């Protein structure tokens, strides 16, 4: 009962996961619309889809272990019942119909020489059980963070063993190893009544309700639980394959300092929102690998762009492919866009954007969109103030983003909204010569590191001071905090959000949002 209840709960979760949330085009776009009238905290749960995915995986692994242990215990009990000759109820049930060909037996172990290894490797339930257990172990172990970070390809390819897992799951129970009393026989043998005196069971018994019990295989039902998710997944894969085969034109490719590749592309019918991401495939590098990258373009632009930093074999090979002066530009396939938490940035009156290294990419899209809104004097912009913080290890990382920030500075001056954007740049890695040069030129109008009006800060920000200043400046506002960066930074920001949020609903409240891929 425990196993089946857990299995039912897991499949309900999977059904909701695939059926309600499978719109990967806008990632829960329609669900967000349906929940538009609900509390912000409820809508934010949609951004924890990866956490939900992991919880379901852990639950499947846990109950798989319970399932295996239960079968091992059953096998030992069946084996003991087969060998017992003490006239006990289990012994009597085990020996019923063993010598007949009517297939009405209960105990699947018919001889004393049957071993667990024999049943495991000579029956359909045993073989499929071993296969899907091995597949599950490989998927779980290869999903560990250190494996994903060091060898993403191992994680990616091993995770596709779920195809074998579900195929084995569907046929796991077709042999009918688990058996139960037949419905017809229940009318002639009431277990609650007849269990009192099993020695008098038989067809010649004057009590018609105590004939010998007859058993049959319980039909396999696992396919009923996985059919809907499988069909939805196949539909989604077909849709994504069709969409990824649409022609993509690379209009511009630039390699910036710190080995960052900027790709500007055009695709017919492509539509996006701020902060979304796409999956990119380059057949020249790998025909099978797809990797997610945040869009750095704005929805108002005709082309869309990404910035790709060298962070592994695939990205390094991609950058090298574009650096080679070939007569023909390498082909790029694109799937998406997909939604993220950053889509909600304009739903807050005040927003704090925090990017670490290449994690600034979703906020490049946000700031570009703001620039266009200023250009067109958009009166529907709900956001009144944006605080932007960018943490980088080296000065070269600032280079490709400087032009955008400089344009924003000029546009805000023209529109009389110089206080709309407050940005701070933090250099977390430097040498004494850079620090000395910055100190020597501190009185200049522009920063010596970036060339912007805002001076670069050396070291890491004091987040307590930042949050305290924002809470003081906006005592009655709802502040959205958006991060694209490491988990350690996420914990610090989340802690500050709780610390500086007022218990009074009429006062300042910080909501934490983090990009998840």
UniProtKB/TrEMBL annotation:
What InterPro entries is this protein classified in?
Cyt_b245_heavy_chain (IPR000778), FAD-bd_8 (IPR013112), FAD-bd_FR_type (IPR017927), Fe3_Rdtase_TM_dom (IPR013130), Fe_red_NAD-bd_6 (IPR013121), FNR_nucleotide-bd (IPR039261), RBOH/FRE (IPR050369), Riboflavin_synthase-like_b-brl (IPR017938)
GO terms of molecular function: metal ion binding; superoxide-generating NAD(P)H oxidase activity
PROSITE patterns in UniProt: FAD_FR (PS51384)
Per its record, the protein catalyses: NADPH + 2 O2 = 2 superoxide + NADP(+) + H(+)
Q: Which GO terms describe its cellular component?
A: NADPH oxidase complex
Q: What PANTHER family has UniProt attached to this entry?
A: NADPH OXIDASE, NADPH OXIDASE 1
Supply the name of the protein.
NADPH oxidase 1
Q: What is the lineage of its organism?
A: Eukaryota, Metazoa, Chordata, Craniata, Vertebrata
